[in-house]
């Protein structure tokens, strides 16, 4: 597995700091490769490779954060990123960037729908966690609301997304003001 050979040095406090920084680097790597997956990869990195790299980074990040007993905020952050990856995989699948062998009889669209549903579950879980711990007006909560709206639109169309979109606008106006883009 990737990253198995990394061993922090120094005293316990230094090791803890290194592991926290390493977990944050894994988090961002997971998000960046998720985006690369959604966009179809590059000449040097296929969409499938990007998806796999993102999943591996986020899985390692989550395991590491649990191992170092990171705060529930940091655990929820990884769960949000896993939702982003799942959404990006659904988008990549819908666009034909991954699993090119899936076609005919609606297999590709059914598989993408399953990924969108899993993303919706992850975002809903994170939304409930952030809302209960941080409140409705927290920027973390609105991130989850944004993604719930986006995924609801993909699954069931604009009408299904309207509730979440209205909530997002209301929270953003309350937290960031009416002139915020």
What coarse outline follows from CA principal-axis ratios?
A: flat
> How many runs of DSSP E, i.e. beta strands?
0
Strand content: under 5%
What class do helices, strands and sheet pairing give? mainly alpha
Q: Encode the helix/strand succession as letters.
A: HHHHHH
Q: Over all CA atoms, what is the radius of gyration?
A: 18 Å
Distance between the termini: 42 Å
User: Averaging pLDDT over every residue, what do you get?
Assistant: 90
Helix count?
6
Question: Can you describe what's shown?
Answer:
The protein is mainly alpha-helical. The protein has helices at residues 12-39, 47-67, 72-95, 107-134, 139-156, 158-176. Helix 1 packs antiparallel against helix 2, helix 2 (47-67) packs antiparallel against helix 3 (72-95) and helix 3 (72-95) runs antiparallel to helix 4 (107-134). The protein has six helices and no strands. The longest helix has 28 residues, at 12-39. The protein is flat and about 55 Å long.
A few lines on this structure:
The chain is an all-alpha fold. It is built from 6 helices and no strands.
Supply database-style keywords.
6 helices; 76% helix; 181 residues; mainly alpha; 0% strand
């Amino acid at each position: 597995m990737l990253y198995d050979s990394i061993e922090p040095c120094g005293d316990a406090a230094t090791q803890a700091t290194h592991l926290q920084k390493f977990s944050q680097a894994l988090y961002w790597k997971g998000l960046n490769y998720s985006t690369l997956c959604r966009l179809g990869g590059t000449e040097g990195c296929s969409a499938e490779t990007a998806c796999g790299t993102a999943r591996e980074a986020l899985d390692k990040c989550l395991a590491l954060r649990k191992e170092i007993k990171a705060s529930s905020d940091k655990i929820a952050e990884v769960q949000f990123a896993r939702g982003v990856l799942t959404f990006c995989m659904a988008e990549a699948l819908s666009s034909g960037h991954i699993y090119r062998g899936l076609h005919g009889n609606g297999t590709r669209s059914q598989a993408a729908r399953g990924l969108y549903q899993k993303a919706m579950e992850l975002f809903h879980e994170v939304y409930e966690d952030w809302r209960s711990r941080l409140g409705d007006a927290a920027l973390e909560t609105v991130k989850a609301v944004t993604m719930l709206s986006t995924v609801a639109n993909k699954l069931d169309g604009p009408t299904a997304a309207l509730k979440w979109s209205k909530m997002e606008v209301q929270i953003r106006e309350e937290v960031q003001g009416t002139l915020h883009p």
